[in-house]
Amino acid sequence: MQIAITTGEASGDKVAGELARRLRARLPDIQIWGVGGTAMQAAGVDVLVDTSRFGAIGIGGVIPLLPKILAARRKVFTAMRERRPDVLVAIDAGAFHYGFGPVTGLCPWVRKELPETRILAWMPPGSWRKTLSGSSLGACTDAVSSPFRWNASELQRLGVNATFTGHPLLDFVTSDMTDTAASTRWGLDMNRPVVALLPGSREQELGELLPVMLDAAYQMAERVPGVQFLLGLAPTIDRERVQNAVLDAHKRAQNRALHSDDAPPRNSEPVLTPVHVTAGASKGAGPSQPWHLERSTRSTHVLPLVIVEDATFDVLKMADVAVCVSGTVTLEAAILGTPMVIVYKLPKSGLWQYRLMKKRLPAHIGLPNLIAGTQICPELLQDAASADGIAAETVLLLLDPEWLFRMKEGLRDVRDALGEPGAVDRTAELVIALGNGNRK
After folding, report:
1. Residue 340: beta bridge partners?
2. CA 293 to CA 237: how far, in whole Å?
3. 221, 223, 225, 227 alpha-carbon torsion, rounded to 10°
4. Among 40, 173, 319, 421, which residue has the least CB neighbours within 10 Å?
């Protein structure tokens, strides 16, 4: 049996890699190839195109990537014609799989050009929506594996062959990190508050949100004595760029402090010093080298900050509060029970699109709030996602144990709404059933 798995971003890559492992455990001779990133490669998938850096926000973010996306599209279409897989598993990535404007998506193209290939949509775009007025999935897929019960019901009502399989994050969002390990590896004092900063996996997100998060962290440090910070990076993010952003934030803090009584010397500089080289404790994580932002002998305005790569689940588990970009990481935080402030900020190139669509946006942007149907976690969007706003919301959480407790209760309800673990296995069974049906 030959399976093609295609996905477009880091979150889809994770679940695709796990699916490949479960498929191979059932059928050792299965051939799996597709489009994805490092997680799929680690699972032994023949990755034709690495899409780990294809993530973009809005039309303005997509335009610079169009040459690469269209080249990748041509390569995938050629491979589909040559290899003619038994099943195509399309994971999220709506524009790539279902098209946009005049550009035909992969699924409609396969349905027309390769009618013998069965198509399974897994975690289709917008599956968090509680009601649907229509869906094109019935015309371009044979089956849908939905992470949400209400989405499967709505699709079934619209005549789509949809199955509620549960959310795949439940199968691998876990952490064995202990306070002792965090203290040893990252130098944390677990008797002091810890804030996680998670700026996302897209380059645009990093550019818009990382400087703001770092400036907010300096404000938090002034208001909450002893607070410590973990900056969790996705494997797709360039470390040097992040280190430069940290150093720039330090200089901005110095400039602000020049007008205060506690001004540091103008020539004081922070020092990025590597600490223990360890393997990331998150499942599937590769080697991870955290970096401390340390205080030089003359500097008094350096954050107690540790940069950690490819260990998001560990970072979330150790945090008292997380500042998260809106996206999959908010659901990972919910599963781990970590209270959070959710932020989102489109770049200037996407502001016109935001203004056009503002009235059509849902009441909430964060997945935990969308699933709950109410605001469990504070959300800061666009201008509200400022250093002042992020610092204020996070400090309120840190200083209000009752609010933290209520938020954790709400996050437990969100986690329960995702179903039971085993979504990847159930989806693997759907893939095999489609493949077997195709080969009879």
Report:
1. 322
2. 18
3. -40
4. 421
Prediction pTM value:
0.85
306 within some domain: yes
Q: Radius of gyration (Cα) for the chain, nearest Å?
A: 22
Report the CATH number at residue 336.
3.40.50.2000
- Among 8, 412, 2, smallest CA distance to 202 is for 8
**Range from 20-34, 94-108, 297-311 that averages highest in pLDDT:** 20-34
* Residue matched to tokens 């997380």: 322
The DSSP call for residue 105 is: P
Q: Is 174 part of a structural domain of the chain?
A: no
What pLDDT, on the 0 to 100 scale, is given for residue 283?
34
Chain position carrying tokens 């109410």? 374
Number of other residues whose CB lies within 10 A of the CB of residue 305: 24
**Does the residue 172 lie in any domain?**
no
Q: Are residues 132 and 196 located together in one domain of the fold?
A: no
d(CA 142, CA 320): 44
**Number of domains comprising the chain:** 2
Phi then psi for residue 72, to 5 deg, are: -65, -40
| Strand-strand pairing, 291-294 and 271-274 | antiparallel
pLDDT tens figures, 262-303: 554 444 455 444 432 233 333 333 334 555 554 433 344 567
CA distance 187 to 181: 9
Which range marks the domain in which residue 151 is found? 2-167+420-439
Sequence length of the chain is: 440
CA dist 306 and 319 (Å) reads 12
State whether residue 230 is helix, strand or coil: strand
Cα(79)–Cα(400) distance, rounded to whole angstroms? 55
Give the span between the Cα atoms of 341 and 388, in whole angstroms: 13
| Angle separating helix axes 328-336 and 401-417, nearest 10 degrees | 110
Q: Which residue in this structure is represented by tokens 């996070």?
A: 394
Nearest to 34 by CA among 286, 235, 43: 43
| Distance, CA of 226 to CA of 240 (rounded, Å) | 27
61 vs 399 pLDDT, higher one: 399
